[in-house]
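User: Predict the complex with heme C.
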Amino acid sequence: MKARKMRKIINLLSIFFLAISIFSLSLYAQKNYCIECHQELEDELLAPVETFEKDIHQQFGLSCADCHGGNPAEEDIDLAKDKSFKGSPKRSQIPEFCASCHSDSSYMRRFNPSIRVDQLDIYWTSEHGQLLKKGDTKVALCTDCHAAHGIQTSTHPKSWTFPWNIPQTCSRCHSDKDYMKDYKIPTKQWDDYKESVHAHALFEKKDLSAPVCNDCHGNHGATPPEITSIAFVCRQCHPSAGELFSQSPHKEVYDEMGISECEACHGNHKILPPSDEMLGTGEKAVCIQCHEPDSEPYQIASQMKEKLDAFIKKIRHAENLLEQADRQGVEVSEPKFRLTEANTILIMVRNLTHSLSLVEIEEKIEEGKKVVAEVTSAGEAALREAKFRKKGLIIATCFIFLLSIALFLKIKQITKKTPYKSA
Ligand code: HEC
Ligand code: HEC
Ligand code: HEC
Ligand code: HEC
Ligand code: HEC
Ligand code: HEC
Ligand code: HEC
Ligand code: HEC
Ligand code: HEC
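Assistant: Here is the predicted structure with heme C placed in the model:
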């Protein structure tokens, strides 16, 4: 009995001491002298502390010393910067500095079991990484795209790597003529991209599925994963045009000539809204860039455009009829619905131009023409009905008018025959 009581007291006492030691340890650990001291400093020595609050590393419980080494528990600068202190890495060391954790899968998985740990490996395959290996430190390093302090996850709208902010992140270097003057590449990617259908979709329509720089160029590598060459990047999102292009005679000749598949006609950064003018042999046609007049492809291009134009003319005519009928109050919702089918076929025809197959295009257009013919006759019938109704209305109005006159005369006649007796 006594022994049990003693044991209980000992247990309680040990819990008490454990609690006190945890409490004092936590008090001790709470003081991070890296932050305490740097808070009192200025400029580039203060900046890391100011931006660290929003840093993803801070949110996961990491601190200055996890990256820089040193002892955060020491108030004295010399003791704080002990043997483990790495200081600030040189630019050439940064990828390995970040990768000391990010390529260590057993370390990283403690925080996030699904995080990728291949950033450095992929980075070395990129133009940036390749040039860095040769000693060029002007290329993009981890910190140029993510920052060194105040790093945020890419899903955060303020992050340097959030889609809307990516163009600025890249063009800090790529649009800076001075910075890029030693290189032989253009510096107008951002200016061009701004005018593209993709930028319009991303910034105006807020469509986050539209590509920005890193979707085509990869986050860390030269090209996105699963893509052997940037020449194939468009297909990922436009599979149908890609498929048709592959079946076309252009595929083989472009490969031989080393032309990247979609770029020849659409460009890469300044991809403008496609129009029918791009097709055929007119001034704005892309086909005449490569095909001489009188060559067979030139003829085919011209025929494609003629067929397409004729089809569109028929659609517009049918549309016109329905509009007229609608304005005259005839119910045409059914043929209007049928017309959307014709417009869908038109979209398919435009897409089919990538196959270069005149036969397939003609077949599709024939299918469309049948639909348009139905709509046209429905439109004509509606207009006839409108005419008929108009005629009917005139006859009815005349009839009512004559009837009222007749009635009026009749009433007059009756009142004449039986005049009121004067009082
Ligand atoms: C995720 C890793 C990481 C963390 C965490 C981190 N730093 Fe840094 N720090 C770096 C890198 C990388 C550089 C080099 C930056 C460069 O050259 O652009 C750097 C540079 C510095 C510099 C030199 C700045 C200069 O412009 O010369 C100071 C001072 C500094 N860090 C202090 C701190 C302090 C204080 C903390 C904690 C509040 C901290 N760092 C947290 C990665 C980190
Ligand atoms: C008592 C003040 C004090 C403490 C504590 C302190 N620092 Fe510093 N730190 C400074 C001063 C002053 C400088 C600039 C002069 C120099 O380089 O020594 C500096 C420079 C730095 C630099 C950039 C220069 C370099 O050496 O590469 C980094 C990085 C840095 N500190 C990180 C840390 C980290 C991490 C801790 C905590 C382990 C820490 N500091 C603790 C005062 C302090
Ligand atoms: C001390 C180890 C360590 C170092 C060094 C380090 N990181 Fe991290 N980093 C982490 C951990 C842990 C996380 C949190 C994991 C997560 O986000 O799920 C993280 C998260 C990130 C994220 C967010 C990932 C996400 O989920 O979107 C980015 C970006 C990042 N780090 C970039 C860097 C950069 C750039 C450097 C070098 C300047 C660096 N890190 C250095 C450990 C480290
Ligand atoms: C050229 C710019 C660029 C460079 C250089 C760069 N990153 Fe990234 N990083 C990105 C972009 C963009 C994303 C992801 C954006 C998204 O998910 O949409 C990203 C994502 C990440 C992530 C989140 C997990 C993932 O892989 O998606 C981590 C961690 C990361 N980077 C670490 C690093 C490290 C470490 C380095 C240096 C070895 C580095 N980054 C170099 C642009 C860059
Ligand atoms: C710190 C500056 C810097 C940043 C930020 C930067 N780059 Fe670069 N980039 C360079 C330099 C320098 C080169 C080398 C130019 C060359 O290839 O001759 C380069 C090369 C490239 C190349 C290869 C060009 C070629 O064909 O030779 C591509 C593609 C590229 N960067 C895309 C990007 C993208 C996308 C981003 C943003 C996610 C980005 N860069 C961010 C500096 C930067
Ligand atoms: C829709 C895909 C796409 C987008 C978005 C995109 N690029 Fe490109 N980029 C390409 C293609 C394709 C090439 C040509 C590659 C080739 O022919 O080898 C290219 C080439 C480049 C080059 C090499 C030099 C040049 O101009 O030919 C750089 C640098 C570059 N892009 C940077 C950027 C930057 C920065 C952004 C964002 C503002 C961006 N790209 C957006 C597809 C894209
Ligand atoms: C990450 C996905 C993605 C990639 C990669 C991509 N696009 Fe797009 N593209 C889109 C989205 C989204 C739209 C906008 C659709 C809309 O809003 O009408 C679009 C629109 C277009 C349009 C206009 C279509 C129309 O009917 O108005 C063309 C042309 C186009 N892209 C060509 C290309 C080319 C060429 C490439 C490669 C250099 C490419 N795209 C790469 C997603 C992508
Ligand atoms: C970048 C240059 C280039 C552009 C732009 C181009 N082509 Fe071609 N095309 C070629 C080459 C090269 C061939 C194969 C040699 C030949 O027949 O002239 C070819 C072949 C063809 C063929 C196959 C002819 C056959 O004998 O089988 C057709 C059809 C064709 N092109 C139509 C077009 C149309 C339509 C356009 C515009 C939408 C166009 N091309 C734009 C380069 C181009
Ligand atoms: C030989 C020139 C040529 C090539 C190569 C080419 N296109 Fe086109 N593309 C056109 C023309 C011409 C139109 C416009 C047709 C129209 O509106 O009448 C067009 C229209 C488009 C459209 C909008 C209509 C639709 O199909 O939905 C998209 C998207 C498109 N192209 C994507 C691509 C992609 C992706 C590639 C590469 C696989 C590619 N194009 C290669 C000439 C080309």
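The chain has a mean pLDDT of 91.
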